[in-house]
């Protein structure tokens, strides 16, 4: 079954073909000649579909957050915008890099194609870039021998099982949370070339690189930067129009 991106490319090709066909035939027929409905529809839709394809493939793409693995940064029902330009321009469907622009950084909240099933999109925070040696011990990240700065903020939403913390990663602070009684799955790992290590901000309730490995560079879709709507059974006004940190 076609996914939305494949369907969009197919519609662009079909409507574009109709547009070219109409332009070619227009030179040979009378200006007053009747036009078939499918020709009129195709040539009308082509510029709209092409614009959507270009914006979605190269500039900005919307996504919806399905779970709480990125709490407190992102909640289930958040609708976000993802900057697809910052990691380079890739062709739709085949994902071939055509214009390198920039590299992902530690601390980026990124959407990527799940390595074990590229048809699924996941969202996590990049905590390790190529060459980094990561250690996770006592629920604290150590990168290249330097423990990250953390500050305790209290409990998460009144639940004393969860500690709400601030963590300094990539030069910027972001909020994260840990469960007091969950095992911290200690590890030490060196990130391979062209791979990225990702973790959820809800550290003890996230399926991430600790379980299924690193994310290849060509699986990265873009950097999440804005919550434009939050709706989970109703509107959550406090989360709307938030910048993602």
Automatic annotation (TrEMBL):
Residues 39-228 form the Peptidase S26 domain. The active site is at residues 69, 124. This is Signal peptidase I. The chain crosses the membrane at residues 6-24, 45-63. One of its GO terms (biological process) is signal peptide processing. One of its GO terms (molecular function) is serine-type endopeptidase activity. Its EC number is 3.4.21.89. It is a multi-pass membrane protein. It holds the Pfam family Peptidase_S26. Keywords: Hydrolase, Membrane, Protease, Transmembrane, Transmembrane helix. It is found in: Membrane. It catalyses: Cleavage of hydrophobic, N-terminal signal or leader sequences from secreted and periplasmic proteins. SUPFAM superfamilies: LexA/Signal peptidase. The keyword Cytoplasm does not apply. It comes from the Bacteria. Belongs to the peptidase S26 family. One of its GO terms (cellular component) is membrane. Its main location: membrane.
């Amino acid at each position: 079954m076609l996914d939305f991106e494949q369907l969009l490319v197919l519609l662009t090709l079909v409507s574009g073909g109709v547009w070219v066909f109409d332009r070619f035939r227009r030179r040979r027929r009378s200006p007053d000649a009747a036009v078939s409905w499918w020709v009129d529809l195709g040539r009308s839709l082509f510029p709209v579909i092409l614009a959507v394809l270009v914006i979605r493939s190269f500039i900005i793409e919307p996504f919806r957050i399905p779970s709480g693995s990125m709490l407190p940064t992102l909640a289930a029902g958040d609708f976000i915008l993802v900057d697809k330009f910052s990691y380079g321009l890739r062709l739709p469907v085949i994902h071939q890099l055509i214009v390198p622009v920039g590299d992902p950084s530690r601390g980026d909240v990124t959407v990527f194609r799940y390595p074990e099933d590229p048809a699924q999109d996941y969202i996590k925070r990049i905590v390790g870039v190529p060459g980094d040696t990561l250690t996770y011990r006592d629920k604290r990240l150590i990168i290249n021998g330097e423990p990250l700065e953390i500050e305790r903020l209290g409990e998460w939403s009144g639940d004393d099982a969860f500690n709400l913390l601030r963590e300094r990663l990539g030069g910027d602070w972001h909020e994260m949370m840990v469960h007091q009684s969950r095992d911290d799955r200690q590890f030490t790992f060196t990130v391979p070339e062209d791979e990225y290590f990702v973790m959820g901000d809800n550290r003890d309730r996230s399926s991430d690189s600790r379980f299924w490995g690193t994310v290849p560079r060509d699986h990265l879709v873009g950097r999440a930067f804005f919550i434009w709507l939050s709706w989970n059974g109703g509107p959550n006004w406090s989360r709307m129009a938030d910048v993602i940190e």
